[in-house]
Write a structure and sequence with these properties.
This protein has five helices and no strands. It is mainly alpha-helical. The chain has one domain. Helix 1 runs parallel beside helix 4. The model has no long low-confidence stretch (mean pLDDT 90).
Length: 103
Amino acid sequence: MVSPPDYSDAFNLVDKDTKTLEKCIAARIEGYSDLYDDELWLLFQQEFVLWTEQHLRQAPMPSLFKLRKTLRSNGVYVAKDQRHPAIPLAEARAEAERHQWTE
């Protein structure tokens, strides 16, 4: 019997292919559906602590768009601009304190 993939915080990013990164991001997005604001930001920080911009760039762009949309929709600020989506996601992950939305 094959064990289900482990996409926990201990997920090893070394030598992962695009499809595996896509599945990991999708699994994490699914887990974020009922989380908002501080709780979501803390979990995102914890689960993506080892992910660099380079790791994020290896994932398919549609997965990064979905991750960014989920975070933004649930109260975690991630810049939405013309840069590759890996850049603002990496910036949000690296923040020491949660960004406060402005009106």
